[in-house]
Amino acid sequence: MKDMASDIERVLISEEKIKDKVSEIGKKISKDYAGKDLMLIGILKGSVPFMAHLMKEITIPCTMDFMAVSSYGNSTTSSGVVRILKDLDFEIEGKHLLIVEDIIDSGITLSYLLKYLKGRKPLSIDIACLLNKPDRRKADLDVKYLGYDVPDEFLVGYGLDYAEHYRNLPYIGILKEEIYK
Ligand code: IMP
Ligand code: MG
């Protein structure tokens, strides 16, 4: 069996750098939401490592829930339609929501989700995202907590997948082109 690391062109963000950044974001969230009814909403499956890590860096009481979505057809079109594969288990009315996501590319997935969840009248709704590809943005999005801006390369690891693999790498790496071409 081949090692995953041999499919990686180079490491873009090390495990150590991720750790520091997530801890910094957790501290900010703990300060900003002190005394508020905070609910973290992880978007499956890419957000799982970030969510698991971030929740441990948050020192105030909070609850959590998960959603699973998939882009409908061609995600590069601006229709912005996203299919909900798993909806929330809990009511969100009167809660302060923080959507936890791995990476924003076009922004279509999150801008659809924001609209969808706003309809259920949370007190506030914001985004915490580890990575952002600013060059690829199609939908306007305000990201309250952002880890790193990244170049337009195909990234894997720390939740990010290629064909459902590499999510368990502890760092963010650039996938070798020969793997997906
Ligand atoms: P958006 O709707 O275009 O912003 O889609 C964001 C989603 O695309 C993320 O949640 C990821 O699942 C996926 N994605 C975007 N860029 C990458 C990448 O470089 N590697 C793996 N998945 C990616
Ligand atoms: Mg995703």
From TrEMBL:
Range of residues in the leader sequence: none
Enzyme class, spelled out: transferase
Keyword Transcription: no
GO molecular function: glycosyltransferase activity
Entry cofactors: Mg(2+)
Short name of any one Pfam family annotated for the protein: Pribosyltran
Catalytic activity, as annotated: IMP + diphosphate = hypoxanthine + 5-phospho-alpha-D-ribose 1-diphosphate; GMP + diphosphate = guanine + 5-phospho-alpha-D-ribose 1-diphosphate
UniProt domain Phosphoribosyltransferase: residue ranges: 16-162
Family matches, as InterPro entries: HGPRT, Hxn_phspho_trans, PRTase-like, PRTase_dom
EC number(s) from the headed UniProt entry: 2.4.2.8
Pathway per the UniProt entry: Purine metabolism; IMP biosynthesis via salvage pathway; IMP from hypoxanthine: step 1/1; Purine metabolism; GMP biosynthesis via salvage pathway; GMP from guanine: step 1/1
Keyword annotations: Cytoplasm, Glycosyltransferase, Magnesium, Metal-binding, Nucleotide-binding, Purine salvage, Transferase
Classification via Gene3D superfamilies: 3.40.50.2020
Compartments (UniProt record): Cytoplasm
UniProt KW Metal-binding keyword: yes
Superkingdom assignment: Bacteria
Function: Purine salvage pathway enzyme that catalyzes the transfer of the ribosyl-5-phosphate group from 5-phospho-alpha-D-ribose 1-diphosphate (PRPP) to the N9 position of the 6-oxopurines hypoxanthine and guanine to form the corresponding ribonucleotides IMP (inosine 5'-monophosphate) and GMP (guanosine 5'-monophosphate), with the release of PPi.
Sequence similarity: Belongs to the purine/pyrimidine phosphoribosyltransferase family.
Protein known as: Hypoxanthine phosphoribosyltransferase
Organism of this sequence: Clostridium oceanicum
